[in-house]
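Researcher: We plan to redesign the surface later, but first we want a full-length starting point. Tokens attached.
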């Protein structure tokens, strides 16, 4: 794709969804569906896949959609693409919208790749002359070799994705909708697709992109929408929304783990040493190079119980940045109620979202008494910084 002229954004949305809701009737078996027809009685349950979702997408904008399985992401994208209709609400499209939806593009299994290209393009209203002009480019981009002449029923999922992606992008849509399609196929072709999408965006193409690869979403999108049980839970800049979603997933997993421990008796609700309070003493904004001070208030039910305190700083994905612990620093075990202040001077963390976990451990540092989390907290980002922490460096070029 070549950009003929600099792209200028429009203030008028190219996609508008107003209070869109989508219900599905769920039957326990096909027999119940048939029985309902003849008896006129309900044998189904109603599942709400989307609930009053309002969305505006502007020309040239990249919008990422994230959320758990079953959150309504695919339903939303299918409604945008026009492959399904909403139960209520309105949808307006002011451009040519083409979609790659979970490889369900509608290829006929008995037809060859080339035959499916012509067949599908005709369904979309494109002339045979137009397809003949771009056919060599479609075949070259897909890299299927002689398989393009074989029935698509012989294709792997990766080959289907190659053909679908190549066809759709060479039809030059105003709005490109991609739902998890890049999760299959080899790494080399995934990179080829990503490079095309980045150039498509640069040339002013509008993109709605759904993927569990959150890094891809953050790179491609100007704005991210987090769907949760059919509702918009959060919407905003990619870094903020993705960090909040990663924190939510991590916290849910930790709560599940704590519940399992409680069931096994490893973590009692009546902990003999508890974290009563845990907070950051600094007031925002926090910048790289600032001191960061944490305060932990510990309550011990019995003064004769020895314990240690560990504090870790992590990124929202769960990867640790650093762990400070009293037993790591060869300090004596603590006893009784304490107020503990932990200061990290001139922190070299790069801008972004982080969280902190404090743990109360027994005197061996092995048994967990209690834990509490803070997060996510934000360190101001400096343009051009990538990574987790700043490492002093110098260049020597000869």
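Model: Full-length starting sequence:
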């Amino acid at each position: 794709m070549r950009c003929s002229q600099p792209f200028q954004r429009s203030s008028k949305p190219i996609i508008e969804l107003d209070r869109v809701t989508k219900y599905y009737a769920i039957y326990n078996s096909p027999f119940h569906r048939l029985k309902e027809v003849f008896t006129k009685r309900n044998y189904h349950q109603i599942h709400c896949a989307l609930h009053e979702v309002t969305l505006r997408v502007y020309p040239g904008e990249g919008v990422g959609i994230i959320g758990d399985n079953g959150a309504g992401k695919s339903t939303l994208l299918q409604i945008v693409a026009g492959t399904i209709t909403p139960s209520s609400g309105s949808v307006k499209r002011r451009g040519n919208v083409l979609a790659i939806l979970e490889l369900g593009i509608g290829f006929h299994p008995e037809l060859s790749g080339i035959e499916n290209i012509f067949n599908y393009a005709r369904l979309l209203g494109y002339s045979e002359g137009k397809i003949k002009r771009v056919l060599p480019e479609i075949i070259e981009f897909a890299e299927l070799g002689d398989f393009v002449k074989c029935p698509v029923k012989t294709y792997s999922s990766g080959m289907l994705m190659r053909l679908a992606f190549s066809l759709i992008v060479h039809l030059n849509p105003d709005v490109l909708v991609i739902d998890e399609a890049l999760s299959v196929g080899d790494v080399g072709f995934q990179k080829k697709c990503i490079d095309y999408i980045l150039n498509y965006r640069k040339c002013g193409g509008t993109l709605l992109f759904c993927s569990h690869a959150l890094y891809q979403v953050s790179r491609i999108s100007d704005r991210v929408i987090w769907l949760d049980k059919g509702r918009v839970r959060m919407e905003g800049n990619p870094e903020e929304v993705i960090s909040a979603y990663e924190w939510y997933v991590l916290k849910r997993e930790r709560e599940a783990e704590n519940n399992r421990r409680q069931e096994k008796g490893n973590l009692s609700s009546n902990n003999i040493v508890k974290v009563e309070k845990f907070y950051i003493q600094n007031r925002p904004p926090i910048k790289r190079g600032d001191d960061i001070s944490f305060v932990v208030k510990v309550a011990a039910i019995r003064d004769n119980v020895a314990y240690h305190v560990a504090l870790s700083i992590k990124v929202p994905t769960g990867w640790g940045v650093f762990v400070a612990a009293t037993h790591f620093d060869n300090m004596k075990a603590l006893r009784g109620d304490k107020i503990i202040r932990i200061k990290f001077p001139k922190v070299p963390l790069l801008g972004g979202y982080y969280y902190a976990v404090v743990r109360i451990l027994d005197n061996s540092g092995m048994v967990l008494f209690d834990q509490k989390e803070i997060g996510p907290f934000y360190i101001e980002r400096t343009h051009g910084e990538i990574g987790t922490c700043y490492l002093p460096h110098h260049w020597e070029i000869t």
